[in-house]
Design goal:
The chain is an alpha/beta fold. The chain is built from 16 helices and 9 strands.
């Protein structure tokens, strides 16, 4: 909020610090304008969404972005301004598909959209139990200039991407309260759940990777990709600055490999105070028929949670992995709509934890 006040002071110095140079403005008008500007500041302070948007605009890191309701973007989804906003038409089509999937159930949700496909859904409710949800591996979009340099075929790439996890987890925010940040960009362009030095995959950089690239990225392409990484973390930090969250939750899926459970909770960054809550969530999932449900098998929690935990060591923060066999056809790498609907509904139920935390 100090930054917003600073911006107001810079753009209207005669209102905040009137001096000899502004003597032509009448005293009564000056006080009227001053009160009006303060009312604007107070409105922003009371509305975290306005605060968030004001911060994004004042820092100008993202360049152009769109803001509005899901209904407004759905209404305008075929208009040229919306099509041309995105980096390319492939990304536009992916975002359009999401709008059509979510409409009309969530048409009043506020949205902020970047041209690289980071989308923030705002269902924040003051004095409620608010979740910050992240689905950063659900994206499949690869810019054309980079796609032709990847050696990994689409079917193998889709086997590693968390296909449709945004559909599995989104109800946790959209039907309760909080903020959901989703990325449409593939982790094979840049992985937001890695440190910057490992965010662009190198050949054999992971156990499940061999040759990633047929051709190296140019300096310009690499800089552009790293820019999207910095934009994501800037946006995430401004969300944290603008809103208060009771829980931060990172939603993923995992391949069906030997020894892996149906559901796994990543608990490395959960403060001890909250561990009984997660044990209760695990028990609920077992009672719903998801056994085996385990902790930290095979993942404990990724870089994003580590980054957030360092800033907020006492917040309730964890991740979840859903085994892909629960909602995908093995051979076609396509999801089953009925399975997604059931898992999504069940996960929403286990997040009825406000009363448990207050006890």
């Amino acid at each position: 909020m100090d930054k917003i006040r600073e911006v107001i002071e810079n753009i209207s110095p005669i209102l905040i610090r009137p001096g000899n140079s502004s003597i032509t403005v009448g005293l009564s008008k000056r006080f009227f304008l001053f009160r009006m500007m303060n009312r604007i500041v107070n409105l922003i302070e009371e509305d975290p969404y306005l605060n968030f948007v004001a911060l994004l605009k004042s820092y100008k890191v993202l360049g152009k972005f769109l803001q509005g309701t899901l209904y407004e973007f759905y209404r305008d989804r075929n208009k040229m301004y919306f099509k041309n906003f995105f980096v390319d038409r492939k990304l536009y089509s992916i975002v359009k598909e999401d709008l059509e999937f979510l409409y009309p159930d969530y048409k009043d949700i506020k949205m902020t959209i970047t041209k690289r496909g980071v989308i923030i859904y705002d269902n924040y409710k003051k004095n409620s139990f608010n979740t910050l949800l992240l689905t950063v591996h659900s994206g499949t979009w690869v810019p054309k200039s980079i796609e032709k340099k990847l050696s990994i075929p689409d079917n193998k790439r889709h086997g590693e991407e968390d296909l449709d996890t945004h559909k599995i987890y989104s109800k946790i925010v959209l039907e309760k309260s909080g903020i959901w940040i989703d990325s449409k960009q593939s982790r094979f362009v840049i992985d937001f759940n890695r440190g910057l030095d490992r965010a662009i995959y190198a050949d054999n950089s992971e156990e499940w990777l061999d040759i990633v690239w047929k051709e190296n990225l140019t300096k310009h392409e690499s800089e552009d990709v790293y820019k999207s990484y910095r934009e994501f973390y800037f946006t995430l930090s401004k969300l944290i600055d603008s809103y208060n969250f009771n829980i931060i939750f990172d939603g993923h899926s995992m391949k069906n490999l030997k020894g892996r459970p149906n559901i796994s909770f990543g608990t490395r960054y959960i403060p001890k105070f909250y561990k009984p809550i997660v044990k209760g969530m695990k028990t609920k999932m077992v009672s719903m028929g998801y056994s085996p449900v385990m902790f930290d098998t095979p993942y404990h929690g990724g870089y994003i949670l580590k980054w957030l935990n360092q800033k907020f060591p006492n917040i309730f923060i964890f991740s979840m992995e859903v085994n892909k066999k629960l909602y995908m056809f093995e051979k076609t790498k396509r999801s089953r709509k009925t399975s997604i609907k059931k898992i999504s509904s069940d996960l929403t139920q286990i997040f009825d934890i406000e009363d448990e935390i207050s006890e």
